[in-house]
Amino acid sequence: MQAYTAAELVNEQATEEPSSPSSGDRGVISRLMPDTLAAAFRSLSNRNFRYLWFGQLLSATAMHADMVARSWLVWDLTGSSTSVASVLVARAIPMLILGLIGGVAADRFNRRRLLMIIQAWTMLMHVIMAALLLAGVIELWHVYVLAFALGAGMAMNQPVRTSIIPNLVDKKDMINAMSLNSIAINSTRLGGPALIAILIAATDVGWAYVWSAGAFAVVLFTTSKIAIPDISSGRSRGNPLNQLVEGFVYIGRHRVILALVLLGLGPLAIGFSHQVLLPQLVEEEYGYGIGLLGVLTSVGAVGGLTGGIYIASRRNVSFKGRLMLFSATSYGLALLGFAGASYLWMAFPLIIWIGVSQTLFRAGNSATLMELAPDRLRGRIISATLLDTALSPAAGVAAGFAADTYGVSAGYMLLSAGCLGVVALTMIIYPRVKNL
Q1: Residue 21: helix, strand or coil by DSSP?
Q2: Mean pLDDT of 267-281
Q3: pTM of the model
């Protein structure tokens, strides 16, 4: 089976697809912001991308509300980090199956219509969760079932949403657009989780889901306003199962894409699962409650925003390979730092640096994949990266078990070793990843 290098893949991709449409409304952002910020937010000059980005902003708000509310609810019901992680497993199971189906669907059907259906489903799940909580009839099995249902929506959402971006912005602005997605997520983390924690402490967990449902109602409206250029002629048709296999064959033949997907296992799967340890860290190590959990989650967004603005403001990023390796390695080292963070003040710089590393890696990884993959396969390529995210709960369960058995530091040490091990393995398999 022939293997392709990055340079050969770029040449192949260039022959398969037309250039992305030019952005509209140029100059609007530059008139409203200083030069550095204008450069960072330049993709928002495109009207359609603005609608997509605003939807990302609101859906991220709902996602963080659910994350804080669900983690605290399960911890309150069970007092076990393993249980917190096991609910994440229920959410991740659909991502192992439906994420791949979502990739095929994104490459076959109208992406905007698909995105609206997915968002309507997610809004309904938040409404049901809010109703159960506010009625006082919530049970642990409800949390598992609805986590599974929300995972199904997320699994379909990501390949569809991400594969739209190359059809809205120029190729030279790809990493900027991907960075703006990270900025949207991290800006909502900056104050959102803390505010949600205050709301929960003052009222009830159910109101977090009322807010989430309202946010998705607005997301449906903004998505309906997006105009996506017609690319149906470039889409492959035929048996969906064959198309699914085609995506994996493509990844297997192109070692650079395989290396990028593998490298994502570090920060996107193993590293990201550190969140299941936060409730135990906050309560047992520092002696606080949900308020500190919300604050720590929000403080991590400072790093995410910093990293996002830095990478988005650069006109050209010619070192994406080294950027990904650096951020994945520093993520693993920050997790190792948490294993020895016995004082509260030590947690703040570590959580900030985790935010920086996560944003830099995700922007570099997503942009590189979208640049290398032809449009007819973009949904399936992105869905393969969902396998990384889907494996996060498995790492979380292992870390949660270690934390419950040997203490929270053991959980962080396990995650750190896994994250750094993935970087080392990627360098052994495809050392040229550093040259991307």
Answers
A1: coil
A2: 84
A3: 0.68
